[in-house]
Design a protein that fits this description.
By secondary structure, the protein is of the alpha+beta class. 55% of the residues lie in helices and 15% in strands. The protein is built from 15 helices and 14 strands. Strands 1, 2, 3, 4, 5, 6 and 7 form a seven-stranded antiparallel β-sheet that branches. Strands 9-10-8-13-14 form a five-stranded mixed β-sheet.
Length: 527
Amino acid sequence: MAKKHSQFGLTPQEQRISALPSTITGVLALIFIVINGIGVWRQEKTDSIFLLEIGIIGTIYLIMFNFFIIPSLNFEPALGWINAIISGVGLILLTYILPNQSDIYLGILLITIIITCTLISGRRPSYLLLFFTMLLTIIIRRDYVGEIDHLMLHLSLATIAIIITETIMQLKRSSREHIHRLEIITDFSRAIASTLRTNQVMALLNAAFQNSVEADTYFVGVREGNEMRLELLYDDGEYYENQHVKLDGSLSGWVLDNQKSLFLADLRKEVELPGVRLVLAGRHKTSLSWLGVPMRGQSVDGIIAIGSYRPNAFERADLELLTALAQHAAQAIDNAHRHAQVELQSQLDNLTHVYNHGYFLKLLEDHINSVKIEHQLLSLIMLDIDYFKQYNDTYGHLAGDEILRSLCNIIKDHLKSTDAVGRWGGEEFVISLPTANGQQARQVAERIRSSMLTLTLHDHKQTNIPSPTVSQGIAVYPFEADEMMKLIDLADKRLYVAKERGRNQVEPDESHWEKLYTGDDYQRSDS
């Protein structure tokens, strides 16, 4: 179960521990004040019972406050103000009944109460306590406050109390921010531990930036040769996609080349890095503060950077935060890369490195669903190597494996990035051509057939051996088959028609497509 934190980033237990020294000091000061007061009053033959009762009540209150009231402050913040009022009333009462010789001890007690109040309640209750205590003390001691010693004492106490209050508040702010950064890092590392996609890593980084740094712009970049691809770019409220920037002479290039962090607090001053200039992206607005850290792993060479349009916007703590995020992100990207490699290997045929039978079927189904939504065509080519068994028997299985790999390379050379090729089984392959009509699919098939005829092969003795031919069958969705398995079956039947007609052919011939449709409504770029 998560711990409950106060507005200052501390748990009730941590608040109690932090206030314990000042509480103990306050109890000791109160005891000393009572003992000293009783001694003074005894000399003056004055009754000391009342002072003793106040001392006992004050001590009990201080102890109860530390152990019972502080843990409740998270649920009842008003208790902090009530404590300031009660403490102030107690101090004023002591000031009223004690002689002015005790003011120095009352001042020590005031300081300890101010420390405790600031630690647990903040600035405003502490200043309320200080203001009214000093004001009423001046009224009560009006006969003595005009003396230079008493005046300096009260001014010194007020000054010390203010300094202590502001120092504690600054320390609390730093502590709160440090705790927040640690929580950001912990949450980020926990979230990416199960992340196996690079885009998910970028989404988590973006959330971490939004929650942890006050930056006008930030980006995550990955080196690609002499350029940097920005996986994530946020600038002044907008996100930018598909951004590339030159690395030569840039701040990012310096970080990547040197694998060192770069902290530039004020870019109004000249950057003292040889050959480095400012390169703008996003809104093309110059940042006045910039911080970049390398993000390097086994499979990634990148950078995380933040910027601000005002100078001195970042601290060293921001550098530490970015460094930690970059380390976790690099590890997560490495994991994602390894997972992608394993996943890709599971999709590919081990010998030819085209899609295997199972994954191609899934991909073909996605292609069909896509063209169906867009009211487009899809052509399917079934391809088989002619007399492949005899070829293996004659020239050996090593030569046969080389033929399979060479054929797949030829097929890939004639396909678009949106097309796909898979090994159907043995020497049979299948090709998906989204948005292609039958005539266009036949053109692709003829190019593959012609390229196979010009292929040069060698056996293990480096002797030239003839290249086998291929036969191919084509079917078009949805004109000829409106279901995936029917489409595959039709293309397969036409493949065997091509074999029966003498092999090294594409079936159907050109006239078939001219009768089926003109194809004018479907255009396809083969670039």
